[in-house]
């Protein structure tokens, strides 16, 4: 598949394809018909960059699973973490229309109806990453935001669009504090 959006990005080492991840997160490649049905069900047009990435690898855990922030969230002072990018489908629990997908989190957990929840975070539902259509309308190019259920659904801006979000993911190693740092005298 020739990439249009991510043509200069190498995805050969992007995904953490453990047996668990493949079994629980990764859907089959979505068809155009399936994408259209999912968009209709969700009520939002999915960004072209998201669709392109899902046609390459439909959901899963990225190796670089952190995104820097300029403000504190319930997760950390300077970043958010994610466990999975939801694929386009219904068969995996953590796909867009899966049993614990976007609409479930809106209906059962009270997340805002202003977009599509696309990434789970390590908190198991207490914070998530969303495509936020509140500024662009249901057919526009959504921003990517972190939604913090524990802080009255506070939105933290992450990226102007999904492509920028993917390009900005960094390794969790950037935020690890080594034992040596903890042992060093101040």
Summarize the structure in short:
This protein is α+β, with helices and mostly antiparallel strands. It contains six helices and seven strands.
Protein described:
It is a single chain. With 186 residues, this protein is an alpha+beta fold. Helix content is 25%, strand content 17%. It has one domain (19-172): SMI1/KNR4-like. The longest helix is centred in the N-terminal third of the chain and has 11 residues, at 32-42. The chain is globular. Residues 177-186 have low confidence and may be disordered.
Element order: H for helix, E for strand: HHHEEEHEEEEHH
How many angstroms does the end-to-end distance come to? 53 Å
Number of domains: 1
Q: What do we call the CATH topology?
A: SMI1/KNR4-like
Give the rounded overall mean pLDDT.
90
The radius of gyration over CA amounts to: 16 Å
Structural class: alpha+beta
Main-sheet strand order equals: 3-4-5-6-7
The proportion of residues forming helix, as a percent range, comes to: 10-25%
Tell me what the CATH architecture is: 3-Layer(aba) Sandwich
Shape: globular
Q: What count of helical segments does DSSP give?
A: 6
Number of strands: 7
Taking the sheet with the most strands, its summary is:
5 strands, antiparallel
User: What's the CATH class label?
Assistant: Alpha Beta
Report the portion of residues in β strands: 15-25%
pLDDT below 50 for ≥5 consecutive residues: which ranges? 177-186
CATH superfamily: SMI1/KNR4-like
